[in-house]
């Protein structure tokens, strides 16, 4: 696990939804529950990303603009998506962003080495998941694209096939764009439809560039989709495309803004539904990628009731430790003292989601099933998957 307090320096200001307190509260809750003290857990400080690696993911002139903006903002910053409402300039912007990217680089390197060579089977950068950043501009609260840094590093180290699965409520557009023409990288994104949510992309027909058809997989979900519908979509698509692609490493982005209480989006998952997604991805990492799993955070803007609980459950899943339902009183008292809010009593929402799988057929009049079928029709043939699988 890669974490230190320097990662909270990624701070767009007190009015911005991407509040660093969400990461601080998450790690504090994980610590209170004893997750960071488990014998199979090592917590390493976040290093700064290798500048040459960063320059292979982002245009050098963009990196230079980020450096300048963080010390002496210039009028042309807007050309690079900096100084906007989504991406306000803050002091030390490059340094803070480079540490998040560095943590994902280190996580990728550790997983590629593996435990037999002093690395790890799973590695986590909970502050990462900045999936909207493009090669030459910032976007959607994201300055440097740390998942793309991790994937690029894995390819450099010798990986021939890397799968990226993104469960953030927003389309993982930056990662998709950066590997659009690369058949070595499968990008899978389950998100609220771009018809109703930023960034307005991620439709089924976006399947990858020439020579890489089928390696971009997009499931555009209707607003209001809850646990059962989301899990139905996941299981109708994700295991099949991973089985066909045969990745050597799985990289995942776990934005928890799909929760019903998130203020910026319109899906309706519970923490329990999100936890089932974590469990499924863990199992798929072992089934298809030899257990090699790089895990990042992502979006999530309900900073007390959702993010700390969801990502603590994520870390518990990665580590393999069951947790009691009750949240420690010390954590709840800290929340009340620091931000004046009443914290939840329990880790979950008390839901028991069920998976209504695809084997029973589909309803052609249902918007969710239309979305699932559109994705299957778009990518399954390109990946050699029988369109009628599960039916």
TrEMBL record:
CDD domains associated with the record: HDAC_AcuC_like
One Gene Ontology term of the molecular function aspect: histone deacetylase activity
SUPFAM superfamilies for the chain: Arginase/deacetylase
InterPro entries: AcuC (IPR003085), HDACs (IPR000286), His_deacetylse_dom (IPR023801), His_deacetylse_dom_sf (IPR037138), Ureohydrolase_dom_sf (IPR023696)
Any single biological process term in GO: acetoin catabolic process
Key word Lyase present: no
Family: Belongs to the histone deacetylase family.
Name this polypeptide is given: Acetoin utilization protein AcuC
